Amino acid sequence: MAWAWTAPHGTAQASLANTRLKSPQCTTASTLCRTTSSSWFHHVPYDYVLKSGKTVIQHFYDAHYDGAAMAQTFPTQWSTLADKIDTERYEHVAFRLDYQAGHSLVWRDSIADLYFNRSQIADTHDPARVDHHPWRLEAEDMTLDGYERYQVNPFYSASSTWAIVTSDNSTTGTASATVPFDSGLYDVAVVYYDQAIGNATWELWLDDSQVGTWHGDLEYILGKAPTFYIDGQAAARVTFGGVQVEKGQELKIVGHPDGNEPAPVDYVVFLPDGVLD
Hints:
Elements: E1 5-6, E2 11-13, H1 24-28, H2 38-41, E3 44-45, H3 56-71, H4 74-79, H5 87-119, E4 136-138, E5 143-145, E6 147-151, E7 162-166, E8 173-178, E9 184-193, E10 201-206, E11 209-215, E12 235-245, E13 250-256, E14 265-271
Antiparallel strand pairs: 1-2, 2-3, 4-14, 5-8, 6-7, 8-13, 9-12, 9-14, 10-11, 10-13
Helix pairs in contact: 3-5
């Protein structure tokens, strides 16, 4: 995937173009470049049409959506090896593939939102995807008790710029909303932030039934560099599959802060069969 940013006159250019070995063809004419190389070696507008027939910006959108969709298939593929690998090794890899499947969606949205904000060019996919999330309930729009709105920086590290955090580090927070979707079977996912400054706990409820609970302890499991901030590196996604949901139910997230981690939450998404958001 080619990285790019917006120049003052609205063009895309690679960040490392001057430090990478350049192809003679790519340095002479952008029409001779592969799609994946054009923005590494050339100053081209976001609406420049590539050999594929797509614009540069649409290529950015599609590549990230396609990549995230592919990442969703990895846990299922790995599960076919369950009876061929020792349990410890199988579960070790399975956990990381599940995490990556969720984080690929977080990363997809961050990149797509960044480029949409800078280019102001809409996603032409039908149905539109970038900046269109009809199955999400944003945490900051819920009824909050013990939680408060928090503006995330950089903005593209949250679904709609905002998240919620507990009012202080000793207050349990509750965010509630009425389920607006038709009754049926859904996968229900929550995007939250797991900072390496505490071990918060979250609970997800529908009316009086607990859907699930999870802990902010990824820093002990994943082996990645810990992050202390509410940003894209701390963002994680937990999914509860096959949940029977009734329209009009009360959705409730309960966050228990720990240390300096204020149980941050970005959004909840209800996913019907075949929907990925």
